Amino acid sequence: MSTTNNYAGIPDEFAQLETAKVVLIPVPYDGTSTWGKGADKGPEAFLAASENMELYDIETGTEPYQQGIYLADAITENSSPEAMVDEVHKITKKYIKRNKFVTLFGGEHSISIGTIRAFNECFNNLTVLHIDAHADLRASYEGTACNHACAVHEASQQTNLLQVGIRSMDAIEKTYMDEEKTFFAHDMVNDEYWMDKVVDQMTENVFITLDLDALDPSILPSTGTPEPGGLFWYETLEFLKQVFTEKNVVGFDIVELCPNKADKSSDFLAAKLYYKMLSYKFMGEGIEDAYDNTYAIDLKAGNSTISKFEEDED
Questions:
Q1: Could you tell me the pLDDT band of residue 148, with boundaries at 50, 70 and 90?
Q2: What is the pLDDT of residues 196-236, one digit of tens each?
Q3: Which of 174, 181, 212, 266 is the Cys-Cys partner for 222 at CB 3.0 to 4.6 Å?
């Protein structure tokens, strides 16, 4: 996957599973995409670009890699969409249980079905922030519920799903969509308060699934289904920083980079975006501060910090 064994070529001392706060799981899967193929090459391109990125974040004045980033083995299960989703679910949950801040880089958006399932099992009252050009709400597509067009259908039924940047969908998806929690691109462009409106509808625990085609193709053309009218760089960062600042982001995935050998700018944007998100997550933490992904539940007998997965056997 990479020319070194470590994310971004960071020193070994910051890349060990035992001490790293962050786990990065590559998922080079492209089994159900219907137009632009190549998302399976996304993680490799992302990792290569990351190795050529400066590791000091100017905005936050931090070096996020010093929190520790462990590059996990890529998930390569591709015998069926269902088998891939099951494997992503299993591996993601395994690292959440190890008290890590778990992140994934796809691959097509169907990987997020397994990711979201794992986080929803491990964190109570979860908000899924879905940043995308497409609604991805179909119950099934081309014979499977594990299609990229169904990426957040399960989340719409089982979590507090908020959709941001939507500008392409099928009529059938309106039957599953909560329009009060959907922020269409054509409305956002005329609403200076859209960021606040999204955050106001979030619960405390937030998982972010970010399809790179949410961004305008003028700044990120290398994606499977580019749609005009997308988000730009600084508004995206402003929004993400607000989410990370005001809520407990428990993890995230980034999907749908389809690299183009003639133009590596999209690869580099994806690399930079991932690193910026880490900078926002850890901007208030010292390197020596322990990371704790558990959450508090108010019990009648008093307050107790309990994890929903503590009694799980798997």
A1: very high
A2: 999 999 999 999 999 999 999 999 999 999 999 999 999 99
A3: 266
Burial class (CB in 10 A: 0-12, 13-18, 19+), 234: exposed
Residue type, 207: F
pTM of the model: 0.93
Residue percentage of the chain with pLDDT more than 70: 91
Name the burial class of residue 275, with classes exposed (0-12), middle (13-18) and buried (19+) by CB atoms within 10 angstroms of its CB. Answer: buried
The answer, yes or no, to whether residue 70 has pLDDT greater than 80, is yes
Nearest residue to 73 (alpha-carbon basis) of 23, 12, 31: 23
Element (H, E) at 47: helix 42-50
Residue whose C-alpha is closest to residue 163's, from 138, 140, 134: 134
Contacts of 214 (CB under 8 A, 6+ apart): 131, 132, 133, 164, 165, 230, 231, 236
Residue owning tokens 């998806």: 173
Looking at the chain, how many residues does it have?
314
Say how many C-beta atoms besides its own lie within 10 A of residue 27's C-beta: 32
44 band by pLDDT with thresholds 50, 70 and 90:
very high
**113 φ, ψ to 5°?**
-60, -45
Longest dimension (CA), the chain: 62
Identity at 224, one-letter amino acid code: G
CA of residue 269 relative to chain centroid, distance: 15
**263 pLDDT more than 70:** yes
